Amino acid sequence: MRETGRSGCPINLTLEILGDRWSLIVLRDMMFGNRRHFRELQAKSDEGIASNILADRLKRLLENGLISRRDDASHKQKGIYSLTEMGISLVPVFAAMADWGRRFLPVTPEMSIRAEILAEGGPALWQKFMAELRFLHLDAPQPAQSVLDELTEAYRCAVERKRAADAEPEVV
Amino acid sequence: MRETGRSGCPINLTLEILGDRWSLIVLRDMMFGNRRHFRELQAKSDEGIASNILADRLKRLLENGLISRRDDASHKQKGIYSLTEMGISLVPVFAAMADWGRRFLPVTPEMSIRAEILAEGGPALWQKFMAELRFLHLDAPQPAQSVLDELTEAYRCAVERKRAADAEPEVV
DNA sequence: AAAACTGCTTGCGATTTGCAAGCAGTTGGC
DNA sequence: GCCAACTGCTTGCAAATCGCAAGCAGTTTT
Fold first, then answer.
1. Given CB atoms, is A104 within the 8 Å cutoff of chain B?
2. Burial class of A94 by CB neighbour count within 10 A (0 to 12, 13 to 18, 19+)
3. Bases in strand C with any atom closer than 7 Å to a protein CB
4. Could you tell me the pTM of the whole model?
5. Is the CB of B28 inside 8 Å of chain A's CB atoms?
6. 3-state secondary structure at position B141
7. What is the Cα–Cα distance from B147 to A57, expressed in whole angstroms?
8. How far is CA A84 from CA A49, A64, A66, in A?
9. Residues A49-53: what's their mean pLDDT?
10. CA angle B50, B53, B57 (to 5 degrees)
């Protein structure tokens, strides 16, 4: 897929690794959805990633050091994918992209609530989130506060609000 | 190339527009290299973009509102491409990506000097840069200080240093 | 009048994508 | 023990995209 050595520019090298329509989706689901198994990443994917593409991307992300893989002790066939420090360090990139997307693209309110929180929280919140990801994916100590829970709960509430609004449209 | 409606997630929608290996390269060259004509974007491209790909990406970026195009008064065939506010707003995304790339990928020192400056300058510098881009690409007033000149000069110096070092390798 | 330059198109083989089905092995419920 | 459900992942194939080279009509420079 990717040829080597287009140029030594950081933007270009980043695009050579992540410049497609699926790699960052996979990382996003691992990061914000805490999805760690193959089928989990495939079945719960909002965008409906095909299994061969997922297999290919996981392989590529492994080769490039963004994620790691270990066997699941509870199931001999299961593998657990984890973010590496390199993958966790993409948090600011996700935050910037998500903030841009929610400002200029036709996002849905539920899906952009987390982008909003991340934008408002700024770099300080991103650091907290990264510390939590180091706990979830690496062997770092557990932080006091869970940013992921906060994000997930806000998302859950937004979905709930939408569901309620759709069910009772008398309030116009 | 892109199908519509995978999901309303800001990350996904951003990837549907910019998730390939060339779109951001084109925008990068317009933004940091101030390249505004077709041939300029093609010939001076460090990565060697093919003309059909460039034509396709410019069309797509136009359709998606990231750039605009107007005729060049000085040459009846020339078109001038400009960044829109939507395109200019990608500065933080570029800064985040470039910073990540320079930390984790095999970048060359010359090519990462600008990423370094942007990372050190932080959001305050990005805002200054965006104000300057609004002057160069839209009709905004000229800011006092030119961030682009600063970046370009630092890059030029880095290239010069490298050239000198390559020419006289007696200093080991 | 010739040469160089303008944005951009065309042709074509190789790669990548999207979609559906399937496979060998594992686990859990009965 | 037995079977259904589940595991990560592969295969086949048509359609789309990519990378590369050449070329084109019109404009400007020399």
1. yes
2. buried
3. 5-11, 15-22, 24-28
4. 0.93
5. yes
6. coil
7. 37
8. 22, 10, 6
9. 95
10. 135
